[in-house]
Structures are given as C-alpha cells and as structure tokens.
Amino acid sequence: MKQALILLLLVGCLFSCKHSKYNIEAIKLNDSAVAIQMHLGQPGYTKSLNDAIVLLDNAIEIDSNYFTAYLNKWNFQTQLKQYNSAITTGNKMIKLIPNDNVLKLLLGKSYERAGDTVTAKRYYGENLLSINKVLDTMNVNSKSYDNLTSDKIDVLILLRQFQNARDLSDKLYKKGTDPIFIYRYKELSNLTQARVKLLYGDTTNVVASVSTGKTDAELDKIIEIASKPSNAKNN
Prior knowledge:
By secondary structure, the chain is mostly helical. It is 72% helix and 0% strand.
C-alpha cells in the first residue's frame, strides 16, 4: 500500500544516507550493521540481525543523536519480533524528531504488535489528525490530495474505522484519476486482510488460509501465532 511503500522508501534512504554531522566511527558501525542484513541467507554466512543490533548499539553509544542507527535498530528489532524493544527504540527516535508523523505511525505499529492497542490507537489518531490538517489546506482536485487521502485510508484501516475507509476509497474510485485507486478499491473488499498487511507486511501464505468471516481479533491472533517462531521471545 502507498503509505507502507513510503515508509519502506524512508527506511531505505536512511540506511544508505551519509550524514556529515554524525561521528564517522558511528557511521561505519551503522554501515557494517546494514551489510549484515544484506548478506543474510548467503551460504556460509554466520552473522545475524542480533549481531547487527550490537553494532548499532555501539554506534549509538558513540553518537547518541545518530538517528539512522536508531531507525535501523528499530527495523531489525521489528524483523526479529522484539516488539517491546522496538518500542523503546521508537520512543528514542521520537525524542530526536518529536513532530515526525511517520515515526508516530511506526511506533503505533510497534505498540500494536506488542499487544498495547490503546497506545497504538493514540499514535494512529495523532497521525490521522495531522493528515486531516494537511488535507484541509489542499486543492481537492489535485493528485497530491488524492495520494494523501490514500494514506488516510491506511490509517483508518489500522484504527478499524472500516466504513470510513470504504467511503474514502469509493470517492477515489469514482474520481478515476489513477488506476492504482481502482486496484485499491478492489483490494479493500477485504479490509481485515488489508489491515493485516499494513501491520505485518507480507503474510500472504497466512492470510490465504484465513476465512474472511473471521473477526479482526481472531485474525490478529492467527497471524500472531503463525508469524512467531516457537523459540522467539518478545523482548
């Protein structure tokens, strides 16, 4: 989905960007951590994401304001399903950039994955409020307005405001300004699956086995069980 893609692009950019204002040794450690992720799965490669996190911790110890290291650490912790640890990292990122709404959305997802839906909804709500404020200043006939409305649909799905999400999707579909909105309109015929994809990413094999008649709580539980390794701990 569009906002998920934006998040991925943001993360990808911050992985590779060099920031001259940060300590050079911290940058090298961060780059080494990213290199570990890139080599995972290669024959004979023995390092893990936990090893990468150790390098990032060292980078952060050298330069406590090095935002990129925190973001990479959050990403690796999320991949390892260390959701409570990801929350701690996410809160540190927000202290560095307090008004960044994308970070609030990321942190909201961490809270929800950890089981704290109340706090998650608070962060989703803040993100939705910010989107609405921007939409109020835009030309409703512009492509930018439609794109941001599409992002709003994603947040509404996370908030389980499914009817509002359907209504907005229907409006974009009827405007017919972009083929992607036609695809999204059809995709949103199953909003519980759309919500799972926003929260957990590529879980096609799990989602395909779930009846569309399941409630959101039932679906979330199935995904949680299916996506959690038997020996994993929610740190």
